[in-house]
Amino acid sequence: MKNFNLLVAIGLISISGCNKETEVVQVPTTTSERLDQNNSRSEASRESRTKNLERMNEANTFAQKLTYAQAYTDAFDHQLLVNKKNAVTEYFRNVGENLKAFKDLDDVKATSEKTEALNLFALAVSLKGNKSSSMLSLIHDALKKAEPLAKGLIGLADLTDYEEEVLIYQEEAKLMLNLRYNINAAMALVSLSDEKKLRHLSSIFKGKKGSLNTVQQQRVNSYLLDSISARDFMRSAGIQAKLDKSIRKPLSKIKVDETFKQNMQTLLFN
Fold first, then answer.
1. Do 137 and 130 contact (CB within 8 A), yes or no?
2. What is the largest distance, in Å, between two alpha-carbon atoms of the chain?
3. How far apart are CA 167 and CA 72, in angstroms?
4. How far apart are CA 61 and CA 149, in angstroms?
5. Whole-angstrom Cα distance, residue 228 to residue 118?
6. Which residues contact residue 244 at a Cβ distance below 8 angstroms, ignoring those fewer than 6 apart?
7. Do 73 and 122 contact (CB within 8 A), yes or no?
8. What is the pLDDT of residues 113-131, one digit of tens each?
9. Could you report the per-residue pLDDT of 212-252, keeping only the tens digit for each?
């Protein structure tokens, strides 16, 4: 029960009177100017990632860690446009730093109490978006090719540089998707349950006491949909997706209204 006790604790127009003044933005026209602008944006996004990663590592609660992890992952936007391979390398290098606290990947459980586990949970949940340039989409693109590559149906020449890089970290990528599946489900569970009945989950992901308002209801459905999405992708790519019993069992006993019923059934029974 000790491990359980820590599982769950989440332009340029100025108006003065009737006069409007529009500031003219100079668009870079030369290669040198464009390179300078790209370098400036790259440096700014790198500084943002460094700062938010440090804050995530220092944060004491999962909620705080998730806020900084999301800001960290969002700050890859420019990097994912200019150098996807380097973005992938950086993300999984930081995943690897937290994995050093475990003997092997199988030791990373949704019930782990380690600070490094909470960092991994936050980094996994922060993988969002269906954009072609999101970190999540890059991981999906690569893992779809893992089985054909293993069977000799395609070769390295058929992979992009970032897909090859993801597959170097293939096991870590699978772990992060499975954590995304589990932790989103755990956050939904805590939000929908009586906290007194989930003491073994209440020290990481904080639940909401009382009824949920519209925004909170939509947030819970977002957790459920992200969990379902992670599971469904893993299944489609031939990757084992396993929902921890400490999350599945109480989820299956919750009585929910129509707001969540369909997504809950899809998560548990499809």
1. yes
2. 70
3. 22
4. 40
5. 21
6. 109, 110, 111, 182
7. no
8. 799 999 999 999 999 876 6
9. 778 888 888 999 999 999 999 999 988 999 999 989 988 88
Strands 13-16, 19-22: pairing kind = antiparallel
Are 260 and 220 in contact, with CB atoms under 8 Å apart?
yes
Which pTM value belongs to this model? Answer: 0.81
Taking residue 235's Cβ as centre, other Cβ atoms within 10 Å add up to 12
Hey, what are 259's tokens?
A: 């707001």
Nearest Cα residue to 140 out of 162, 111, 114: 162
- The pLDDT of residue 195: 56
**DSSP secondary structure string for all residues of the chain:** -TTGGGS-----EEEETTEEEEPPPPPP-SHHHHHHHHHHHHHHHHHHHHHHHHHHHH-SSHHHHHHHHHHHHHTTHHHHHH-HHHHHHHHHHHHHHHHTTSSSGGG--TT---HHHHHHHHHHHT-----TTSHHHHHHHHHTTHHHHHTTSS-GGGS-HHHHHHHHTHHHHHHHHHHHHHHHHHHHHHHHS-GGGGTTTTTTSPPPPS---HHHHHHHHHHHHHHHHHHHHHHHTT------HHHHHHHHH----HHHHHHHHHHHH-
Q: Which amino acid is at 69?
A: A
Query: Whole-angstrom Cα distance, residue 128 to residue 118?
Result: 18
Measured between alpha carbons, how far apart are the two ends of the chain, in Å?
A: 29
CA angle 147, 152, 154 (to 5 degrees): 80
> Which residues on adjacent β-strands are paired with residue 13?
22
Distances in Å between the Cα of 266 and the Cα atoms of 136, 168, 222 are 22, 32, 13
